[in-house]
Amino acid sequence: MDGMTQKTLSLDWTNKRTRKREFLDEMERVVPWSALVALIEPHSPRAKTGRPPFPIETMLRIHFMQNWFTFGDQAMEEALIDTPLYRDFARLNVDADRLPDAITILRFRHLLERHGLAQQMFVAVNELLAAKGLVVKSGTAVDATIINAPSSTKNRSGERDPDMHQTKKGQQWYFGMKAHVGTDLETGVVHSLVTTPANAADVTQVDGLLHGAETDVFADAGYQGAAQWTRARVRWHIAMRLGKRRALDTGTDKGRLIDELERVKARIRAKGEHAFRVIKRQFGFTKVSYRGLAKNTAKLHTLFMLGNLWMLRKRPQLCEA
Taking the model in full, what pTM does it have? Predict the structure, then answer.
């Protein structure tokens, strides 16, 4: 096209409604930011000289994005540089002459770990959910999942993480830790968390998974004999062992009734299993992030707290002031 000047089509994609933007908008709405900042504020260091520190809420938002999108400290720094959406969510001024670097992000995480703030935030959010009537507390489902850890000794210490252990499940061996949870039967909210090496038997942890107000507890076959491990007076509904269930004669009325009862118990237990799906599939936490149980336990408290909010994000009570 002689004599004609080709014009470049200029498009602004910054406000396109992507899935990630929708997700952050939903979490922006349901996370109780002011309450969580108030928990952290007494432990936050004050700058005596030099540049003022970044606001606590900004660092908390960055910390949550790390958990949602499985960013390491360096990767999170680079994501803030590259992605306006992340800077907007963190409430970082577009004209700012600096952004939080990997060391700043690491120090904030260590601050939370040092003062046990992840567990405190987990408890605070659950208390908020209970106050809004989103945790019924009449029944609990208990369950556990294995979180894999690196089994290789090709690292600086030349040894595997001493807090992690191996266990056999079915015909397969695993190395890592276990997350044991108690969940509300009505909503699937995780109200209790205990972590152990992977070789700890599920049934040994039940006492730490009950809040004390429930009347009924549902569990899979790994919790046979659970009543012996707790003083709580509850009705246990434990799944039949797979071998016994396979041996049922479903051609009889009794066999069909028992089999249907097992199906009902499985459907109820699914509420508890959903919480694991959220942290593993939605948030991508399929293997430990750090060495040692303590740091990974802090991360799990954060993940389950955020998972609780995500599962209930469409409940109108959660968005009420």
Answer: 0.89
Does one domain contain both 31 and 175? Answer: no
Is position 7 within any domain? no
Inside any domain, residue 125: no
Tell me whether residue 11 is in a domain: no
| Residue 12 counted as domain residue | no
Give the count of beta carbons closer than 10 Å to the beta carbon of residue 185: 20
Q: Do 231 and 156 belong together in one domain?
A: yes
- The whole-angstrom separation of Cα 299 and Cα 160 is 20
Range of the domain at 95: 19-114
| CA 254 from centre of chain | 41
**CA–CA separation, 97 and 227 (whole Å):** 60
The separation between CA 56 and the C-alpha centre of its own chain, rounded to angstroms, equals: 21
Q: How far apart are CA 218 and CA 142, in angstroms?
A: 6
- Co-location of 89 and 180 in the same domain: no
Backbone phi and psi for residue 76, each to the nearest 5 degrees, phi listed first: -70, -40
Q: Which of residues 114, 146, 167 is at a domain's end?
A: 114
Number of domains in the chain: 2
Along the 321 residues of the chain, how does pLDDT read in single tens digits?
444 444 444 545 556 779 999 999 999 999 999 999 999 999 988 766 667 889 999 999 999 999 999 999 999 999 999 999 999 999 997 666 789 999 999 999 999 999 999 999 999 999 999 999 888 788 999 999 999 998 877 666 778 899 999 999 888 999 999 999 999 998 999 999 999 999 999 999 999 999 999 999 999 999 999 999 998 899 999 999 988 888 989 899 999 999 999 999 999 999 889 999 999 999 999 999 999 999 999 999 999 999 999 999 998 888 765
